[in-house]
Amino acid sequence: MAYLNLIRYKNLIIIVLLQILLRYGLLIPILDYFGVSPELSHLRFGLLVLATVLLAASGYVINNYFDVSIDRINKPDNVVVGRQVPRRTALLLHVIFTFTGVFIGLFLAYITRKENYALMFIVIPGLLWYYSTTLKKQMLVGNLTIALLTALVPFVVVSIEFASLARIHGNTILQSEACSTAWFWTTGFAFFAFISTLMRELIKDMEDVEGDREAGCRTLPVEMGIDYSRTIVVILSIASVAALWFILIFVPQLRNSWITIGYFSLFLTIPYIILALKTLTSKTKKDFAFISGLSKIIMLMGILFIIVARTFFV
Known about the structure:
The protein has helices spanning 2-6, 9-33, 42-66, 68-74, 87-112, 115-133, 141-169, 177-207, 209-214, 220-224, 226-250, 252-255, 258-281, 285-310. The chain is globular and about 60 Å long. By secondary structure, it is mostly helical. It is built from 14 helices and no strands.
């Protein structure tokens, strides 16, 4: 169990769920709807998921490796590196995950003839290392970095499929309605992932403010205070609800779907309202841990909306 906690397996499960649902629950139905056959094989898609998971796991491992002193203050009972997992073992796992993930990523870049993918798979591990040592200690910079990397998770699924399709059909496929529709929906889920992750990162910073202050981290709660950070999270919650209903009103497929209206109301709007209210009243680490967990549930509910979106194309 210690090794599963080291790689934060629950977060990895969410990553796998997002990529699988996005491809098989939305992207392929969209392609079928427009009469386009997917080109990326199941095996190569599986390699993409594996590469994503390995790089994410390597990031979690190195973050835990450098966070030992902070975790001893914030979560003394949950320190993994140095207690349950030797530091050398953790570092070795980071190296193995990184090189394996990069190798798979370079292979995918080669078969799709996309040089920018190779650059992406090389840069991301370095960025995660730099985040663990430096960026996470800077106000908002670390939060935005993780939020942006999370938003890349759905983008890469659609991007690599259309890169494969372009090799067969030429660049005309990139100008097709199938492509624009796929990118429209993917951008929505990526934006949701970005905002949800940013909120959760800020909530975690409020929960961990004591250890961060001792370690010299200049996070938003440390620099501006808990009350200011609460305000930002509440504003993001309200903005997320407003964005959801704005999209619902202006997208006919959503506006005319009672299932979507019910889903948005019960599984997204109400949880967001509860999160905002609890954020305003949270004072203890237990309170912040609760809203952190709630933010993860909201993210999961957003991902599962793919199942509803699929019905528009079958």
